[in-house]
Amino acid sequence: MSTEPLRFDTKIAVLLREDLAPWQRLNVTAFLVSGLGTRVPEVIGDPYEDADGVPYLPMFRQPVLVFEGAKETLTTAHARALSRALPRALFTSDLFTTGNDHDNRAAVRAVPTAQLDLVGLAVYGPRNAVDKVVKGARMHP
Q1: pLDDT digits (tens, 9 = 90+) for 14-33
Q2: CA-to-CA distance for 52 and 29, rounded, in angstroms?
Q3: Quick one: which H or E segment has residue 23?
Q4: What beta strand segments (E) does 2-131 contain?
Q5: Sheet holding 138-139, edge to edge
Q6: For strand 10-17 and strand 64-69, is the pairing parallel, antiparallel, or unpaired?
Q7: Would the pTM count as exceeding 0.85?
Q8: Beta strands in 1-141 (DSSP E)
């Protein structure tokens, strides 16, 4: 087994708005990354199994980098992700007031792209493209 870290040619990044409460940061991150594995199956690794043979679900095959930034940073990152046609997931402030998936989709559908009040964005793609999307954001502490 190699002890050298594996460098992926792709990147998974989550960008959170800096003014979120801690519980919101965790909740938004969980929701955002759940979307990537459904549309980009190559990000999912193999299932796990412990020494007793108990199976566990597969997870991402690579790290998820979490960034934060101002509202404007998210708006810019969203536009960059769209212009690069990268797989993406979003979370808007409206989703904090809904209680189910149907209402979540309706809340997003009701707002034009340029007016989305983004609080979180997840993107996946080539490292350099994702780096350009999150440019201006800082790593989450």
Answers
A1: 999 999 999 999 999 999 99
A2: 31
A3: helix 22-39
A4: 10-17, 48-49, 55-56, 64-69, 88-92, 118-126
A5: 88-92, 118-126, 10-17, 64-69, 138-139
A6: parallel
A7: yes
A8: 10-17, 48-49, 55-56, 64-69, 88-92, 118-126, 138-139
